[in-house]
Structure prediction request, 211 residues.
Amino acid sequence: MAKNKKSKTALMREIRDEVVNLTSSPLYEFRTENGYLPVLGEGSHDASIMFIGEGPGLNEAKTGRPFCGAAGKILDQLLEDVHIPRCEIYITNIIKDRPPQNRDPLPAEIEIYAPFLDRQIEIIEPKVIATLGRYAMVYVMEKFGLDAQIEPISTAHGKEYGVQTLFGSLIIIPLYHPAVVIYNNKMLGALREDFKKLETYHKGVPNKTKP
Ligand code: URA
Prediction:
C-alpha cells in the first residue's frame, strides 16, 4: 500500500462517522428519537459483487445490519442456492436510515445519502453491481450514464449492462427486490433465474483478495 494511503476500512469508517452525525438528514430525528441505528453496509471490502438495496427496514434499523429481516432471509436463501457466501459480497442501500413506515425514499433523501453510496462504490471497486428493486436500479443506471436504457424492472431484471468506470469495467444487473416474494411467491422463480447469472460472475471473478 502506498505511504499515507488510507485503508478501505479507514475510508468506510469515515463514511460511518459522517452518517452517524448527519444532523442535516430529514431522517436523523426519526433515527435518534427511536433509538435506531444507521445502516452503512456489510461484507467484504474487496468484494467483486456489490448488492445495493433501497433502505433499511425496522429490523435493519434496530440492528444496524442490512437485509437482516424478512427480505434478508429471502436474499440469504437466494445467495445460498447459487453458492455465494454472504461474507464474500458487499451489501448496502442507497438510503442509510430507515424511512418512517418503510415508505419509498424521497428525492431529498436520495440526494443526501447517495454521495455516501458513491464513495462506497469507489472504495470497493466492484466488478458487478446487483441492484435490488427499482430505486437502486434507477440510481445506479443514471449514475453510470445509462439513463436512456432504463426500463420498468419487469423487463430490465436479469439484463446485464456493461459500463466503463474510473476503476475499470463494471457490469450492472438489475434484480427484483427480494421483498416482492413476501407479497407474491411466484416471483421467486424469476429471482432464482437472475441469481444464477451472479453465480457465473462469482465463479468467474473471484473475490479480489483470493489468490
Ligand atoms: N430492504 C432494503 O432495501 N434494504 C434493507 O436493508 C432491508 C430491506
